[in-house]
Design brief:
Pfam families: ABC_tran. Keywords: ATP-binding, Nucleotide-binding. The longest helix has 19 residues. The radius of gyration is 18 Å and the shape is globular. The protein is of the alpha/beta class. The protein has a domain of 174 residues: 3-Layer(aba) Sandwich (Rossmann fold), CATH 3.40.50.300. Helix 5 packs parallel to helix 6. The chain has a 6-stranded mixed beta sheet with strand order 6-9-10-3-11-12, with helices on both faces. A 4-stranded antiparallel beta sheet has the order 2-1-4-5. It binds adenosine-5'-diphosphate and magnesium ion.
Length: 261
């Protein structure tokens, strides 16, 4: 599997006619872990949704390519097959479909007809990953996310990521609502998946997740664009000083976007 190369150029996106993203530039390569941090309402989840092809978000301008291929031309399915994966901030429940069935269908959809994973291999992998994530085996046979606690949903998103082995994993606020033990387990899952042929885009409001997953690059989003980039020390600075100090430095009064009609 070749290392991925995701490139976002001058991306402008609107929702319901409201401009949200206003010129995002970002380049992510295999082996790298990028973190996007920022206050709430600055466009982080919008970027994740646009990468996956959520129909609500309208690209007004700019380009997204994966290995030189135009991502914006691809359907959601094609994006998944190309290796893009999104762990959502608010994972959906799927009534009537068990976790195991869902995962097997998703894996086979990605592998394509004639190349389906054997049942034995699937079960072996599922058991192994669930053990690593300290998940009760019973969760394999429960309906996807139905009745799961916030923390269980997040762990389940990481299980999906581990089973699907994406080339570019986008994790949106995977740390929200997790206690410190669950956070460590989620980080263990992510770290176990770090590889030269895989890249991560980790979206988080707080620095604490980055104590357990050391990013190569840290970006701060405000007003729908990346206003500052650096290394792990940038996250530490934000932890120490908060977002207000950076806002003052950049002369930004209101970091949010799209709030006004
Ligand atoms: N589906 C949507 N419908 C309407 N407004 C949206 C939608 N998604 C995002 N927005 C708006 O875009 C802005 C940025 O939101 P979001 O990307 O979720 O920010 P963040 O993830 O940084 O908190 C907010 O003002 C939000 O209300
Ligand atoms: Mg968000």
């Amino acid at each position: 599997m070749a290392a991925p190369h995701l490139k976002i150029e001058d991306l402008h996106v609107s929702v319901d006619g409201k401009p949200i993203l206003q010129g995002v530039n970002l380049e992510i390569k295999g082996g790298e872990v990028h973190a996007i941090m920022g206050p709430n309402g600055t466009g982080k989840s919008t970027l994740a949704s646009v990468l996956m092809g959520h129909p609500k978000y309208v690209v007004e301008k700019g380009r997204i390519t994966l290995d030189g291929q135009d991502v914006l031309e691809m359907s959601v399915d094609e994006r998944a097959r190309a290796g893009l994966f999104l762990a959502m901030q608010y994972p959906a429940e799927i009534a009537g479909v068990t976790n195991a069935d869902f995962l097997r269908s998703a894996i086979n959809a990605r592998r394509g007809e004639g190349n389906e994973i054997s049942l034995i291999k699937f079960i072996r992998q599922l058991e192994e990953k669930m053990k690593l994530l300290d998940m009760d085996p019973a969760f394999a046979h429960r309906y996807v996310n139905e009745g799961f606690s916030g923390g269980e949903k997040k762990r389940n998103e990481i299980l999906q990521m581990m089973m699907l082995e994406p080339r570019v994993a986008i994790l949106d606020e995977i740390d929200s609502g997790l206690d410190i033990d669950a956070l460590k387990i989620v980080a263990k899952g992510v770290n176990a998946m770090r590889a030269p042929e895989r890249a991560f885009l980790i979206i988080t409001h707080y620095q604490r997740l980055l104590n357990y997953i050391t990013p190569d690059h840290v970006h701060v989003m405000m007003q729908g664009r990346i206003v500052k980039s650096g290394g792990p020390e940038l996250a530490e600075r934000l932890e120490a000083e908060g977002y207000d100090a950076l806002k003052a430095e950049l002369g930004i009064e209101d970091a949010t976007v799209g709030q006004k009609a």
